[in-house]
């Protein structure tokens, strides 16, 4: 998706996840958004059609919500400060380079001047750092706080919504997620600006020297508290040697360098320095080769990278539960639920009631399929032969309350499936249903039944909780279908992000 589309999608996602009661974006709004998006897709299928549906729906939703909450428009705007800084910083760098007057009032070019050698040294250090971050892959991680800071700067001084309200919480959630999502893009744009600024600073530095040298004769020499003439000769030969070989401008030997020393008892015969023209040429070629050209190349690369990222910004896809629920509204694939009975043998009527309740909770077109009953103790072999399916929205483990939960069997099965889903299919929700029907039937009429049921459910929660699963205890034989569906909807969707 483009950056604008992704911004709308993520903003609507944050609002819908926070707006559990449908006050900001009502059920009617959502139905209209789905209908408009279906028209926009025109019956197409596939990943592109899915992306168009989600984007078209978000476009309608943001327009509708913005009519009621004008602050939404501010969240959809691109950063003002970041755009201005991308222009101003390079211009300031160019001006700084032009105004850097290392000649001083004595009309002298110090061959060891910090603006010249310092600029070259700083850029070489930057190249080493870039190589290091490229090898370690830590550049994007450090860009997250940068993107967050840019977002805060863009909204500084503005409070779009009343604090603590659902839309304010949605706005905060959106900003946090957007900062993380656009961290690579922010990194590319920042790098582009900094590289261009560095190139223009060096260009301004050289242009300033040439500009002043056109109307004034400057003398080149050096002075140092600690460096001797041989050390200075070695330093200049290292830095300017390649430029000397390229241009044919010779670097004097140690006696020549010694003669160019300006001050002190060891001042050379040419204490007044020499004409600075050849040295200016050497520094110009060196600066161009080590700073200007590489930095402009990096600017172009980061600019192309930022352009590519802005056109193909990754947003939540089918592996995200929210998106999959939206896509079901597009008339595409229905929701899929896989039920795995373990050490339980649900009868046909139980299966029918459970399937009916799942369809009522997740949509009439939801596909519900049952695995063969998994025998007690056979979980390892079964899981190896029946790995989680990629298109499942839910994987429901069906246990019976009559069984005593055991960590090495019931818990192990839940943990292994949870690990597999987390690793291979993070969009699938793992849930567990504890069928109370058999247990209740066996102890029907006995005193303390509810207390014993509560104790057993607590034991199941303790065992399955290690896999991150909160089991839902229900009587699959007794509750009316409508009540059963409501219980499953409330209990099967433990994460607020999955409610809508």
Keywords, please?
alpha/beta, 500 residues, disordered C terminus, 19 helices
How does this model look, in words?
- This protein is α/β, with parallel strands linked by helices and 500 residues long.
- Helices cover 62% and strands 7% of the residues.
- It has 19 helices and eight strands.
- The chain has helices at residues 3-18, 27-41, 47-68, 71-76, 80-99, 114-136, 139-154, 166-181, 183-213, 229-247, 254-259, 277-311, 321-329, 348-362, 379-385, 407-424, 437-442, 449-465, 481-492, and strands at 108-110, 219-221, 274-275, 336-341, 367-370, 394-400, 429-435, 472-474.
- The strands form two sheets. The protein has a five-stranded parallel sheet, sandwiched between helices.
- Helix 1 (3-18) crosses helix 3 (47-68) and helix 1 packs antiparallel against helix 8.
- The radius of gyration is 35 Å and the shape is elongated.
What structural class do you assign from the helix and strand content? alpha/beta
- Gap between N and C termini: 24 Å
> With helices defined by DSSP (H or I, 4 residues minimum), what is the helix count?
19
How big a fraction of the residues is strand? 5-15%
Shape category: elongated
How large, in whole angstroms, is the Cα Rg? Answer: 35 Å
Q: Give, in spatial order, the strands making up the sheet with the most strands.
A: 5-4-6-7-8
Provide the succession of SSEs. Answer: HHHHHEHHHHEHHEHHEHEHEHEHHEH
Unreliable stretches, pLDDT < 50, 5 or more residues? Answer: 494-500
């Amino acid at each position: 998706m483009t950056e604008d589309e992704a911004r709308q999608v993520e903003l609507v996602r944050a609002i819908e996840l926070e707006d559990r009661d449908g006050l900001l974006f009502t059920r009617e709004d959502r139905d209209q958004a789905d209908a408009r998006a279906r028209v926009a897709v025109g019956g197409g299928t596939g990943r592109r059609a899915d992306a168009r549906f989600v984007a078209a729906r978000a476009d309608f939703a943001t327009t509708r919500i913005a009519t009621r909450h004008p602050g939404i428009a501010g969240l959809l705007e691109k950063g003002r400060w970041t755009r201005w800084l991308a222009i101003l910083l390079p211009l300031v760098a160019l001006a700084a380079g032009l105004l850097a007057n290392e000649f001083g009032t004595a009309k002298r070019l110090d061959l060891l001047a910090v603006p010249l050698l310092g600029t070259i040294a700083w850029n070489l250090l930057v190249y080493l750092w870039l190589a290091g971050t490229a090898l370690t892959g830590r550049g994007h991680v450090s860009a997250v706080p940068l993107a967050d800071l840019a977002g805060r700067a863009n909204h500084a001084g503005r409070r779009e919504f009343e604090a603590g309200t659902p839309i304010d919480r949605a706005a905060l959630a959106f900003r946090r997620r957007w900062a993380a999502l656009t961290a690579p893009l922010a990194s590319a744009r920042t790098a582009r600006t900094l590289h261009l600024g560095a190139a223009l600073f060096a260009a301004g530095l050289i242009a300033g020297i040439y500009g002043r040298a056109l109307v004034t004769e400057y003398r080149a020499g050096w002075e140092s508290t600690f460096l001797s003439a041989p050390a200075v000769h070695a330093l200049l030969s290292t830095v300017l040697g390649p430029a000397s070989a390229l241009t044919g401008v010779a670097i004097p030997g140690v006696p020549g360098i010694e003669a160019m020393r300006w001050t002190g008892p060891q001042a050379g015969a040419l204490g007044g320095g020499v004409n600075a023209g050849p040295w200016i040429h050497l520094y110009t070629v060196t600066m161009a080769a080590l700073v200007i050209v590489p930095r402009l190349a990096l600017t172009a690369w980061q600019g192309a990278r930022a352009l590519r990222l802005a056109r193909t910004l990754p947003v939540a896809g089918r592996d995200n539960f929210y998106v999959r629920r939206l896509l079901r509204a597009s008339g595409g694939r229905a929701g899929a639920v896989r039920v795995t009975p373990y050490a339980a043998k649900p009868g046909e009527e139980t299966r029918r009631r459970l399937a009916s309740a799942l369809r009522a909770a997740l949509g009439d077109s939801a596909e519900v399929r049952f695995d063969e009953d998994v025998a007690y103790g056979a979980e390892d072999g079964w899981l190896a032969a029946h790995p989680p399916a990629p298109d499942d929205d839910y994987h429901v483990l069906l246990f019976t309350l009559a069984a005593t939960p055991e960590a090495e069997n019931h818990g192990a099965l839940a943990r292994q499936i949870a690990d597999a889903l987390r690793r291979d299919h993070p969009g699938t929700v793992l849930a567990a249903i504890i069928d109370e029907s058999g247990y209740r039937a066996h102890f029907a009429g006995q005193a303390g039944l509810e207390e014993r049921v509560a104790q057993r459910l607590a034991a199941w929660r303790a065992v399955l909780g290690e896999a991150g699963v909160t089991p839902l205890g229900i009587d699959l034989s007794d509750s009316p279908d409508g009540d059963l569906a409501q219980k499953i909807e409330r209990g099967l969707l433990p994460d607020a992000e999955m409610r809508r």
